């Protein structure tokens, strides 16, 4: 069941699952039904899609202007759509297309971490309002795909 975990973690998890409380829980749960009904997270959008949306948003007026002038050459129109210099002119910054937020690096496996969240511990925690400010900042000009990563979110407590 835990083939993707490091051997130490795999042993620890298997030992925990052998405890009577877990065995009782498993006896009362149809794991196959739970697995079958589990929702898979959506696939993240491709970076190309986000970049294309940005170019479309920023360059569509120029392409409309060219069409109004009678330009029908597909290559010229595509060049106008894909012109990054024009798209970025007057824009303060390139849009952030993907944003990974790490609400906590706290982990139930301290001090040995799993392969996934083997990151340095940071002493300062951001408050919910700080996270909201970060998201509002990066959502302009194009809202990014946001994903949460890092330690064990259940260790954050109820305040977040």
List keywords for this structure.
single chain; 160 residues; mainly alpha; 3 domains; two-stranded parallel ribbon; 7 helices; 5% strand; elongated
Q: Can I get a quick summary?
A:
This protein is mainly alpha-helical and 160 residues long. 45% of the residues lie in helices and 5% in strands.
Describe this structure in words.
By secondary structure, the protein is mainly α. The protein has three domains: 1-40, no CATH class; 45-94, no CATH class; 96-160, no CATH class. It has helices at 7-17, 20-27, 31-37, 47-68, 74-81, 84-88, 128-138; strands at 98-101, 145-148. Strand 1 (98-101), helix 7 (128-138) and strand 2 form a beta-alpha-beta unit. The longest helix is centred in the middle third of the chain and has 22 residues, at 47-68.
- The run of helices and strands is HHHHHHEHE
Structural class: mainly alpha
| Cα separation of the termini | 31 Å
The percent of residues in helical segments reads 40-55%
Major β-sheet strand ordering: 1-2
**DSSP summary: helix tally:** 7
Number of domains: 3
Low-confidence regions:
none
By DSSP, the count of extended strands is: 2
Mind summarizing the main beta sheet?
2 strands, parallel
What fraction of the residues are assigned to beta strands by DSSP? 5-15%
The rounded Rg comes to: 24 Å
Q: Any idea what the shape is?
A: elongated
Average pLDDT across residues? 80
What's the multimeric state?
Answer: single chain
